[in-house]
Each structure stands twice: as C-alpha cells, then as structure tokens.
Amino acid sequence: MARSAKRRGKSPSAGRKGSKTKNRIASAAIRGKRRSVSDISEDLKEAREQQAATAEILKVIASSPDSVQPVFEAIVTSAAKLFEPCSATITILQDNKLYWGASAASISGFDVDRVRTIYPIPFDVNLSPSARAVLERRIIEIPDTDRSDTPAMTQRAAATGGFRSITFVPLIERKKGIGTIIFTHPEAGFRYSERQLDFIQTFADQAVIAIQNARLFNEVQLRTRDLSEALGQQTRCRTFCASSAAHPAIFGRYSGSCSTRP
C-alpha cells in the first residue's frame, strides 16, 4: 500500500490548475512588457520634444544677443506647448517690483493681455508666491488656488485666468533670485513630475542666459561707443594742435587746452 501511494501521480485537476497559473503569469509578464515598451516610447517622444524646444530657444538666444524679449516669448511659447494644457508667464524683479516679461497659454480662458495689466506687482511675499520663490530661491507649488491660505491676488488671477493649480519656478543668477517662470494648470491638485520640473528649470536657466547676454552685449556696446568718442576727441585735439603749431599766434592762445604729445 505504501509503494502504490508513492507511485500515485498528480490528479488531472491539479495539472489544469498549474497550467492556468503559468498562463496567468505569462500573460501578466507580456502585459508588463507592453507597458514598459509604451513607457519607453513616451519617454523618447518627450525627450525629443524637449531637445527640439531647447535647440529652438538656443537659436533665438544666438540671434538676439541684445534683447531678452524674443527669448522670453520663445520660452513661454515652448513651455505652453510642451506641458499642455497650461499657461507660462515670465516675471523679472526690478526696483523691488515684479514686472511682466512674456506669457503664452494652451488653456482656454487665459487672457494674456489681462495678465499683463496685473504687473508690476510689489515684491512682497505676503502678496505674491512669486516673490517668495524669488526670495527663497526654490520652487513654490499651490496645488489648489481655492485653498484659504492662497494669497488673494493669486485667487483673483486664478478666477480670471481659468486655472486651479500654479507653480512658481525662480530665475536664479549668481545665487540670487531675479524673477520667475509661472506655470498654471486648469486642474486642482495637479503637480509636475520631478523630471518635468527639471526641464522647467532648464527654461529658467535659458531665461537667465538671455538676461546675462543682453546685459553683457549692451555693456560692450556702451564701452565701445565711449572708447570711440574718446578716440575721436583725441584725434580732433591732435589735429587741431598740429594745425595750430604752424600758426604760433593761434597756438599760443590755445596751448593750455591741448598737447601735441601722443
């Protein structure tokens, strides 16, 4: 009896259960593989779009060394397109106020002209989360603008702009906040992923590069103009003195105002 029990194999029902379990595992593995391939394709698509946006903005930076406006407009336009549905606005800190730089939107109800009329706004952390982001040099997120702790100015802007969540990304130059890029979204509770925030920071860095380039370009232009004027004045003086040297009477009268020495 003991030997016959040992020879006894698995029942047919047990075999069928084992096959079903293996089939379920195999199906789950295939579905997981399909999801992985889909995720990779989405990641590649997103990376290509981001690279294209970065390249386009760099072209604008190179072609507009003396002006930030074309760069700002290219940045907000690319941002609104990449992170649709959203709006993007650049602000710049000057004279203790935040000034409007540029806006673009891919959400309905966002009126760029109306947003522009809000600025400039006082640089006050109690009135504007944008000021707080600049001062603290970090990203500030408001997942729901209807919350009671949202500043009244931000709530009014949300009501007129058609958005419910908002993200403030600081522009940082030499460890100092100089402005923000503001992103809005029509859904309450929306948050950008870490990877998206990293790329948004790239937009902020490009805006800072444009500001630095314009400042340096204008400084060089000013110095070049001053140098040209100084050289022109020196040339005129030398020409006058050389001419006066041939006429002692005239030269004697003006000898105190110029020198023939190089």
Give a topology summary.
Elements: H1 2-7, H2 12-63, H3 69-82, E1 87-94, E2 97-105, H4 112-118, E3 121-122, H5 129-136, E4 140-142, H6 152-161, E5 165-173, E6 176-185, H7 194-245, H8 248-254
Antiparallel strand pairs: 1-2, 1-6, 2-3, 4-5, 5-6
Structural category: alpha+beta
The CATH architecture category of the largest domain equals 2-Layer Sandwich
Q: Mean pLDDT across all residues, rounded?
A: 80
- The N- to C-terminal Cα distance equals 126 Å
What is CATH's topology name of the largest domain? Beta-Lactamase
Protein name: GAF domain-containing protein
InterPro entries: GAF, GAF-like_dom_sf
Domain GAF: 67-221
Pfam family, one: GAF_2
Plain-language structure description:
The chain has about 260 residues and is of the alpha+beta class. The chain has two domains: about 50-215, GAF domain (Beta-Lactamase), CATH 3.30.450.40; about 220-255. Helices cover about 60% and strands about 15% of the residues. It has helices spanning about 1-5, 10-65, 70-80, 110-120, 130-135, 150-160, 195-245, 250-255; strands at about 85-95, 95-105, 120, 140, 165-175, 175-185. The chain is elongated and about 80 Å long. The N and C termini lie far apart (about 125 Å). It comes from Bradyrhizobium betae. Pfam families: GAF_2.
